[in-house]
């Protein structure tokens, strides 16, 4: 089913050609949803933009377009308003037909893409021997949401976790553990993740201040790269220990990822440098092999190098990123590669994208996209940290959200003198707490910073997950109260719209395909959040103004269908955000 707006846009383009000739093929009719419902549902403003070109008054242009415009199946008679706006009001019969068509459609009228392709979403990417912290929250949640939407649209999605599992930090950590805790390098689970993180900090401090230790650490890196058995065994143990900790977070957040860390690309690094040299892109600078790119300078205004091989012959993460992008294009055959990281890495991505382009590794049909996001701020407007000034551990943040959600549930149960099982309370607290964290992040434009506030994200009113979950629970409450099976309302069950709030809800339900298509292209999850918030709001107004169970037939069944379509749309939309629904709260 084509989106209503797309159909109208096409018909307006055809009318433009009919009125003014083939040179107007593909001209944008500037069609937008009407800001004021009394003027209809959509407004085309193209007549104003063509006035100078055609040498005609906008109103005369609008009249000529309307004379050639056939939208009788979708709209009432078009009206020309003001200086030349074309106002379009959707017919009740059209809305009813469209809604009745999606009742039995499991995809709710959202088609699969006509151009499915292999897409890679690179997200989360924590570092081995470090705990996941609040900085990983946005990449993990945004990346998962984007992957879900692309999968729903029918693309083949490879969800990659590009973990930091190689390089100098391992030489440093292994060298230090040989001295202070050698059993950690030979025995599984000898250390917990907290100990590992503390040892890493101590190793880093030692590395920064002790030249002898620096050399020992570098030798360990050389041994690791050469595949020395004991060093490799130690490295595997450290990776496995971290992996277990990451899995706890991913399971809690219901995140699916395929790990392909920096180490995976290690065998490809010499060839990357060799090919860059063959392409004439490499210059030696102070003993290091560098690629100099247009538009990149340091603070002094000197050209800023992209170092691909260090003076000691080692490689860095820029080389790894170049190897990974080449592998993803040549071996994975990806057509769109999406990297989800904080905005602070913009320069790095711009540099290695440009280097890969100059090396002719990116075919015309392949798109590289850096999906950036801003910082998570505390309520004081500064970078979100613990009271002692440390970075907030992601596990602590999620546990706190669940704990607060539980307290809120228990206080409401006590107030209502309602008893529930421990299993019920635990499940609701977990779903509400985790949903609140996810939704708070996704509902903000990812390119901006946002303020992390437990009170705001757990609020029952406003643009929050609990508000959305309550709207869904309300629909299920109608089913329970009336002993209604939404899936079996009868073969002849139909939507019949009569009340203003029914029209408003119906129009909104039919916009789902447009919104999902937008997010697929623009990779901005907050657009879907806005849609679901407005859907919940419109449903609540419909519920308050239109009795459902107490209505006479056929109005009762029609309203039950509207409730069911709302519930299914909320459930699908929230699932695309990575949020589970609850039948009761």
UniProtKB/TrEMBL annotation:
InterPro entries: aa-tRNA-synth_I_CS (IPR001412), Arg-tRNA-ligase (IPR001278), Arg-tRNA-synth_N (IPR005148), Arg-tRNA-synth_N_sf (IPR036695), ArgRS_core (IPR035684), DALR_anticod-bd (IPR008909), Rossmann-like_a/b/a_fold (IPR014729), tRNAsynth_Ia_anticodon-bd (IPR009080). It catalyses: tRNA(Arg) + L-arginine + ATP = L-arginyl-tRNA(Arg) + AMP + diphosphate. The keyword ATP-binding applies. Residues 468-585 form the DALR anticodon binding domain. Residues 6-90 form the Arginyl tRNA synthetase N-terminal domain. It is found in: Cytoplasm. This is Arginine--tRNA ligase. The gene is argS.
């Amino acid at each position: 089913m084509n989106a209503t707006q797309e159909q109208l846009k096409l018909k307006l383009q055809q009318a433009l050609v009919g009125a003014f000739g083939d040179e107007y093929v593909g001209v944008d009719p500037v069609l937008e949803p009407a800001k004021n419902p009394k003027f209809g549902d959509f407004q085309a403003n193209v007549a104003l933009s063509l006035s100078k070109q055609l040498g005609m008054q906008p109103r005369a242009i609008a009249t000529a377009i309307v004379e050639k415009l056939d939208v009788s199946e979708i709209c009432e008679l078009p009206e020309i308003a003001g200086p030349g706006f074309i106002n379009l009001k959707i017919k009740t019969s059209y809305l009813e037909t469209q809604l009745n068509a999606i009742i039995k459609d499991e995809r709710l009228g959202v088609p699969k893409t006509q151009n499915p392709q292999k897409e890679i979403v690179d997200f989360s990417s924590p570092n081995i021997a470090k705990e996941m912290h609040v900085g990983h929250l946005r990449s993990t949640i945004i990346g998962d949401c984007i992957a879900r939407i692309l999968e729903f649209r029918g693309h083949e999605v490879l969800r990659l976790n590009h973990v930091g599992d190689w390089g100098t930090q391992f030489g440093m950590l292994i060298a230090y553990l040989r001295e202070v805790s050698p059993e950690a390098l030979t025995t599984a689970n000898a250390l917990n993740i907290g100990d590992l993180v503390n040892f890493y900090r101590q190793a880093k401090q030692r590395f920064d201040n002790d030249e002898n230790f620096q050399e020992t650490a570098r030798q360990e890196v050389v041994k690791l790269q050469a595949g020395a058995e004991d060093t490799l065994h130690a490295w595997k143990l450290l990776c496995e220990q971290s992996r277990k900790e990451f899995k706890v977070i991913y399971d809690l957040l219901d995140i699916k990822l395929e790990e392909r860390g920096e180490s995976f690309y290690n065998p490809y690094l010499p060839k990357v440098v060799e090919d860059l040299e063959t392409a004439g892109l490499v210059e030696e600078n102070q003993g290091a092999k560098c690629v100099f790119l247009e538009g990149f300078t340091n603070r002094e205004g000197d050209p800023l190098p992209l170092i691909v091989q260090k003076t000691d012959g080692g490689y860095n993460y820029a080389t790894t990123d170049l190897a990974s992008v080449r592998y993803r294009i040549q071996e994975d055959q990806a057509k769109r590669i999406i990297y989800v990281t904080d905005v602070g890495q913009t320069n790095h991505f711009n540099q290695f994208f440009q280097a890969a382009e100059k090396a002719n590794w990116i075919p015309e049909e392949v798109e590289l996209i850096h999906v950036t996001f801003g910082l998570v701020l505390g309520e004081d407007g500064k970078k979100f940290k613990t009271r002692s000034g440390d970075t907030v551990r992601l596990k602590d943040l999620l546990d706190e959200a669940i704990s607060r959600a539980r307290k809120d549930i228990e206080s409401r149960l006590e107030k209502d003198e309602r008893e529930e099982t421990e299993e019920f309370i635990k499940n609701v607290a977990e779903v509400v707490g985790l949903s609140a964290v996810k939704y708070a992040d996704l509902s903000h434009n990812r390119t901006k910073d946002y303020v992390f506030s437990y009170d705001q994200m757990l609020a029952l009113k406003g643009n929050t997950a609990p508000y959305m979950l309550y709207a869904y629970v309300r629909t299920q409450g109608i089913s329970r109260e009336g002993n209604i099976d939404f899936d079996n309302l009868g073969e002849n069950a139909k939507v019949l719209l009569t009340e203003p709030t029914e029209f408003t809800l119906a129009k909104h339900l039919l916009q789902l395909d447009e919104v999902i298509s937008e997010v697929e292209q623009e990779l901005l999850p907050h657009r879907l959040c806005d849609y679901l918030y407005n859907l919940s709001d419109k449903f609540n107004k419909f519920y308050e103004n239109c009795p459902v169970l107490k209505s006479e037939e056929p109005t009762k069944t029609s309203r039950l269908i509207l409730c069911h379509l709302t519930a299914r749309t909320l459930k699908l939309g929230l699932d695309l955000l990575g949020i589970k629904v609850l039948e009761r709260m």
